[in-house]
Hints:
This protein is mainly beta and about 120 residues long. Helices cover about 10% and strands about 45% of the residues. A hairpin with a 5-residue loop joins strand 4 and strand 5. The chain starts with a strand and ends in a 9-residue tail after the last strand.
Amino acid sequence: xxxxxxxxxxxxxxxxxxxxxxxxxxxxxxxxxxxxxxxxxxxxxxxxxxxxxxxxxxxxxxxxxxxxxxxxxxxxxxxxxxxxxxxxxxxxxxxxxxxxxxxxxxxxxxxxxxxx
Length: 116
């Protein structure tokens, strides 16, 4: 049996832009993707702490070093600039893999920089 297991989480990121006219996705600073082990075009779930919205989309790279987290397309109606979000990805693992797995949790400050 395979189970969906948390791979990584960007915890308490701040939305820096919302663009309803973009063709969908979430734009994330590649430095944050590297820290979490996330990849462009990977499916992610987004949890909006401010309003309780939960939605899924795929990642596109933003500008490296910018700290940007941009919600695009229809999902832009589910967030506002300044909202706090949690971004997670999951992977399929068998019980043996899951028992040995430790997810990567990256806690972010108000400027979307990892808290050490």
